[in-house]
Amino acid sequence: MKGNLKAWIISIVIALGGLFYEDNLNYKKGDVVKKTIIADTEIRVKKAPERLRQDSLDIINLSPPVYRRVDFYERFNVLAESLSKVFPNSDYLRRRALAILQKGIIEPKFEGQIIIYDRGNFFEVEGGKIQSLGELCRQNDTLCLYLFPTLIYDSSLTKKYIQSKLQALSPYEFVLKPGDVVVSRGEIVSDTTLRILQAYKLETLRPKRVAFFILGVLLGLFTLVGFYLRKWDLPSSASVFVFSVVYLLEILLHYFTNLSPFFTISPIIALAVSSLDTPTLGVVLSAILAIMRSASYDFSLSLPLYIGSMALVSSAGVKFIKSRSQTIYIAIFMIVAGITSVLISLPFMGGFEAVPLKDIFYSVWPSSIVSTVAYLMFLPNIEAIFHKATEYTLLELASPNHPLLKELAEKAPGTYVHSLSVGNLAEVGARVVGANAILARVGGYYHDIGKIYNPEFFVENMVEGNNPHEDLDPITSARIIISHVKKGVELARAYNLPEEVIRIIESHHGTTLLLPFYLKAKTSKLPYSEEQFRYPGPKPRTVEEAIVMLADSCEAASRSAESEGEIREIVNVVFEEKIKDGQLDLVPLSRWDLEKIKEAFIPILLTYRHTRPRYTKKEGVDEG
User: Fold this and answer.
1) Could you tell me what percent of the chain has a pLDDT over 70?
2) Which of 132, 97, 104 is nearest to 118 (CA)?
3) Are strands 151-153 and 106-107 parallel, antiparallel or unpaired?
4) Can you give the pLDDT at residue 442?
5) Is the peptide bond before 538 cis (omega within 30 degrees of 0)?
6) Are residues 523 and 580 in the same domain?
7) In DSSP terms, which residues pair with 68 in a beta bridge?
C-alpha cells in the first residue's frame, strides 16, 4: 500500500468517526442513571403516545355541548307590542321578561358545564344555573308568553369546538427551563425518564453532533498534513488496518451502548502500532482517539488524560518487554496509570460525587485486560496477513532453538558460525545509524540459510584439502553458489519468516559479480557471459538490507586479517567496491552513515580473527 494512500485512509477513518457522537444516554427502562444532567436550554418533554391518544379521546368524549346565543331583541319587541294590547300591566311584564332573556334561556336544559358561542368566541358557563323555558313557565304562565329560548344547542358548533380543542392540545407533558435537572445520578430510569432524555437529545445534541463531525474532519486533515509533511513516520499497512478497526470499533461501541466512558480498547492501538512501527506513531494515533472521545464526553479533562496515560504506558512497555508472555506487566501498569490519571483529574470533574471510584475501577481493569488479550490474540494474525514482523517475532526468530537455525547448525556448521557473526555485526552497524537493530541481527542470522543445501560447496564448510569446485567448471560452480539465495528465500517462505527477513535473504548479495569463478571462466575455453556470474538481485532497498550485505562481505573477507590495520583496509575496500558496483544506489545511506558503520564494524571484526584463505583485492570478496 502506497504511503499517500495510507495517510488518506487514516484521515478518512478519523473523519468518519465524527459521524457518531457518543451521547452516553442509551438507557433502558430500569437502568440506573450514571451522571446528573443539567438543562442548558429549554427542554420540552413530549407526552407518551398513549397519554396523547387518551387526552384526545377525553376531548372528544367529555367536551361539553355548545349552545348558540340567538339575537332576541327584534322578536321580543314584536311580541311585547302585540301583548301590550291584552295585558294592562304590560310594561312591568316587558321589563321583567327582558331581564330574563338577557340572562339567557336554555333549550334543552343541561346539567353541568356548557359552552356558549357568542360573536365568534366560546365561553364556558355552568349550564345548571341557566333556566329552561319550561321552568320559567311553571313559575309564571303569563310571563311565559313574553319568553322564548335564547341559548340553543348547535351540533356543528360542538364539532367545531372539539376540533379547536384538539388543535390546541399540547403534545408536551411539561417544559424544563435552563438550569433545571434533567436526570439525577442514581435515578431509576422510567418511561417518563426515557421521554425526558429523548427530549434532551433532540434539543441539545444536534449542534453537538455537527461540532463533533467538524472536529473529526479537522483532525483528519491535521493528520493528513502531518503525514504529508513527514512530521511522523508513515505507518505500515498493518498499522493502518489496526488503527482503522480499533478506532471505529471504539467510537461505535460507545455510540450504540451505554458503557462507562472509561471503558476503552484504545490501548490496542498503542500496543500494536508501537510493535508494528514506532512508539511515537502509536502515541499520536492514540491521542487522536483520546481527543474524539473527550469531545463526545463534553470535553472532559479526565478522558484524554486517562486514554493518553494508558497509551504512553503501553507504547513504552512494548520496547521494554522482550517476550509476549511478559505483556501481562503492561496490563498491570495500564491499570495503575489509568486509575492514577482519573484520580488526578477527579477534582475538576466534581469529585467522587460525580464519578464514583468503584465505577472507575470496574472500567479500568477490563479495559486493560481486554486490550492486552486482544493484542496478544490478533497481532500474530495481523503479522501473518501483512507480512510484518514485530520485535517479539524477531526476538523469537533470534533464538538458537528456532528449527531453521538448528538445521543450519547441523548441516552447515561453518555457515551457522558465519551467520551468527554477521548478525551481531549487522546489529551494531544498524544501531549507530538508528536503523532496526534487531531486524538487522535476525536478517544476518538467516541470510545464508539456503546453504543448508549443498553446504560442502561453500568455503566456510569445506574440509581442508577437499574443494569440490576443483572438479567442476566455473559456470556450474557459480550456479551452485548463486542458487543459495533462491533456496534461502524458498526455505524462509516455507517457515513463514517475515517479509522483511525474506527481503534481506534475497538482497544480501544484490547483483554482485561472483569474481573468483568469473576470472576462472575467463581463462577457460567455455562460452560464458558476465550475467551467469552475477547474483540475480534485487539490490538492497532498506538500510537493514544494506547493512547485512556489508556485514556479510566484511566478515567473510576479514577472517584472514591479523591486525587492525588489515581489517580497516579490508573494510574500506569492501565498502568502496559495493559503492562503485552500484549495490547501495537504492539505499538512503549517506557517506557519513557509511563511515559510522565502518567504525562500528572494526572493533567487532577484531574479535572474529581466525584462519581463513587470505583475501586479495584482485580475487574479490564475494564467494557466496
Assistant:
1) 92
2) 104
3) parallel
4) 96
5) yes
6) yes
7) 117, 152
Residue 588, domain extent: 393-606
**pLDDT on residue 192:** 82
What are the residue ranges of helices labelled H in 20-154? 49-62, 73-83, 90-103, 133-139, 141-144
Do 379 and 407 belong to one domain? no
d(CA 449, CA 495): 11
Residue 93: per-residue pLDDT: 85
Host H or E run for residue 210: helix 206-228
Look at residue 612 in the predicted model and tell me its pLDDT. 47
Q: Per residue in 451-489, is it b (16+ CB within 10 Å) or e — as a string?
A: bbbbbebbbbbbeeeeeebeeeebbebbebbbbbbebbb
Residues 109 and 145 in one domain: yes
Top-ranked range on mean pLDDT: pick from 165-179, 256-270, 278-292, 568-582: 568-582
Identify the H or E element spanning 173. strand 172-176
In a domain, 181, yes or no: no
- pLDDT score at 79: 85
CA 227 to the chain's CA centroid: 18
What's the pLDDT at 354?
A: 54
**pTM value > 0.70:** no
**Residue pair 587/543 in contact by the 8 Å Cβ criterion:** yes
Q: What is the largest CA-CA distance in the chain?
A: 167
571, 427: one domain: yes
Query: For residue 181, is it left (φ>0), alpha (ψ between -120 and 50) or beta?
Result: beta
Domain match, 129 and 266 both? no
* pLDDT at position 615: 46
Instruction: Identify whether 44 is part of a domain.
Output: no
Residues 476 and 340 in one domain: no
Identify the pLDDT of residue 624: 55
Task: Look at residue 39 and tell me whether its pLDDT is greater than 70.
Answer: yes
**Could you report the per-residue pLDDT of 415-457, keeping only the tens digit for each?**
999 999 999 999 999 999 989 999 999 999 999 999 999 999 9
**Average pLDDT value for residue range 498-521:** 91
Region 138-146: mean pLDDT is: 85
Query: Which three cell numbers mark 17?
Result: 468517526
What's the structural domain count of the chain?
Answer: 3
Is 567 contained in some domain?
yes
Structural domain includes residue 253: yes
- What confidence score (pLDDT) does residue 76 get? 87
CATH number where 588 lies: 1.10.3210
Give the domain-ending residue among 339, 354, 387: 387
Are residue 71 and residue 209 in the same domain, yes or no? Answer: no
For 153, phi and psi rounded to 5 degrees?
-60, 135
Mean pLDDT of the chain: 85
Cell of 576: 568502496
What is the per-residue DSSP string for 39-60? Answer: -SS-EEEEPPHHHHHHHHHHHH
**Section 259-263 average pLDDT:** 82
AA identity, residue 31 = D
Question: Which segments of 321-436 does DSSP mark as H helices, in order?
Answer: 327-345, 357-386, 391-397, 403-411, 413-432
Q: Look at residues 359, 387, 415 and tell me which one is the last residue of a structural domain.
A: 387
How many Cβ atoms sit within 10 Å of the Cβ of residue 283? 20
Q: What's residue 618's pLDDT?
A: 45
Cα 54–60–62 angle (5° rounding)? 90
Q: Examine the pLDDT at 535 and tell me if it is beyond 70.
A: yes
Q: Is the dihedral of CA 377, 379, 384, 390 positive or negative?
A: negative
Summary count for the chain: helices (H), strands (E): 25, 9
Strands 113-118 and 66-69: parallel
- The span from the CA of 122 to the CA of 125, in Å, is 10
* 345 shares its domain with 227: yes
